[in-house]
Fold this sequence. Notes:
Transcription Regulator spoIIAA, about 55% helix, elongated, 2 domains, six-stranded mixed beta sheet, 14 strands, alpha/beta
Amino acid sequence: MSSESKEQPDLSPRNSAEGNDNLASGISLEPQKESSTDFKQVETHDQFRTYPRIYLEPQEKSNTNIKEFIIKKLQKSCQCNSTKAKNMIFRFFPVLQWLPKYDLKKNLLGDVMSGLIVGILIVPQSIAYSLLAGQDPIYGLYTSFFASIIYFLFGTSRHISVGIFGVLCLMIGEVVDRELHKAGYNTAHISPLGMVSNGSSLVNHTLEKICDRSCYAIKIGSTVTFMAGVYQVAMGFFQVGFVSVYLSDALLSGFVTGASFTILTSQAKYLLGLSLPRSNGVGSLITTWIHIFQNIHNTKLCDLITSLLCLLVLLPTKELNEHFKSKLKAPIPTELIVVVAATLASHFGKLKENYNSSVAGHIPTGFLPPRAPDWSLVPNVAVDAIAISFIGFAITVSLSEMFAKKHGYTVKANQEMYAIGFCNIIPSFFHCITTSAALAKTLVKESTGCQTQISAVMTALVLLLVLLVIAPLFYSLQKCVLGVITIVNLRGALCKFRDLPSMWRVSRMDTVIWFVTMLSSALISTELGLLIGVCFSMFCVILRTQKPKVSLLGFVEESEIFESLSAYKNLQTKPGIKIVRFIAPLYYINKECFKSALYKKTLNPVLVKAAQKKAAKKMLKEQRVTLSGIQDEVSVQLSHDPLELHTIVIDCSAIQFLDTAGISTLKEVRRDYEAIGIQVLLAQCNPSVRDSLTKGQYFREEQNLLFYSMYEAVAFAVESQNQKGTCVLNGLSFSSD
């Protein structure tokens, strides 16, 4: 052994695109000091010792009759007994499983505190978001109340807060304004006629006779809500919760941020006290700002000053709540304080009478009698409800899974779809709009000690108190205050721009998806923005597989580890053997990319074959002999000079699947290389790829050049070359020991 000390190798990736995997720790390489290259070719064959080929016998698959299989499944699912019925009821109503086991001493205090705090926070938000959805304030309170009760019964998450959500309110508001315009309701927003309050009861004298703008608006909203709930329950019934995977985190984040710009734009007119029609359709954000600047001279000074004062109070206190959330037992209910103070100032200052300031108006107590959605509106809103239902269940499922993972329990995605679906279907008969989980309220709920959904019951009790007693006291509350509350609650979504540098470092593709979805949601429309984001995200997935990474591999000496030569230093290669890794499924989209990359990394067999034919013609022309005075052309047996390359090993470990085009491409590649005396070996194929190769008749009877490890494939190539002493010619078969 040399007296020189061995050096620790440098295995840091030089190319981040290909150096994603670190080599196993503890492996040392001895670099050649006289060589300046990063890898070396070794002539010794001692490392790749031969051993018997590995052959696995596949399990025999029984030929199942499809008819018998379906009958068996139906019989199993249609069987009914007391145990199965009990289990089905318990699965459908998860509250029956955990409520009897509820630990009062351990959980009650945290649930009561979190429920009360969330209830206090959700009251002003429900009133504000009603404005965003084009509804009267009472309907937002109805929505949050019923959603809390119903999710308590059907939900499986212990922590999420289900209720009114800004993005969904924006989408509903766009549908409501469109349908109101179609129906000819272009007057200013007014409260329903004939609604009077008598103690805690609500009487509607003219509901059946006259349906004014507010009445028709809630008809539209409840019909959209009903259809969204039907879609969500249908997805739960058919167990298609997997469709949520098409809404990636980057896509949802970009969509919410883009929709937040639209929400901010729609609320800006309230901050200035302007009475403007709501812009809908493509480019509504730009159109709204044009209308605002055209009418900015009509700004009401009272509303503007109130908005600025509320912003100066809410923004710093929100930051303080966020900064000291670990030290505060409960967040400061600044929104409620602002609402109470602004209502008192507006009432005693008579801002509506003196300065013509817009106020919330009369909010009745009690509950309206239930009423079915307007079935005649279903054809008009059915398509709009699809996007709303997808966004609602995607946010709910993602939040429930996130908090379940954090606290060490499991949630059922399909049951969550049932829960959020019924949170929309049942309340749609009680004048409510679409609901979903909301991140901000869920974070507050978790941080204030929530243990179970008992906290949702406490939130519902707070809302019930407001609905029965307190609601009329908000009569003088200015709409600009509600607009400020809505805008301040967009702070989290708008601050996503801070995360872009780190997202760019981790995944540039996700960052591009975020930008495309955000810009299309903001500048085009929310529904089209979501659709564009989903389509672009799928296009990016296809793009990643269309031009995947292809790299040449080398091995670590005295080991069975193979890694990219362009990513790591001090890797070695065997003379005459090229090892190629293709990092993508091989199918019709990228088959040409696979061939061109393989030919570029090794050699192009088509060009080599053409060059050999050209050399053969030239040789025949030169070799002429003359016998007995007669010139005759004699065909000469040509022996081409053997190529230095004799084996190509394709590492298939990163090939997830093959289609018929992929199998045909592998056959074509093998045929082209064998035509010039180079054998092609496949290594580390997963069971799906091996099954596709077998069904596609890739293997020939006389040979099976498929290996379970890279080491086995290279050892086979070395041994076969040693036995033959020459390059492998086309059609030569190898017998395994």
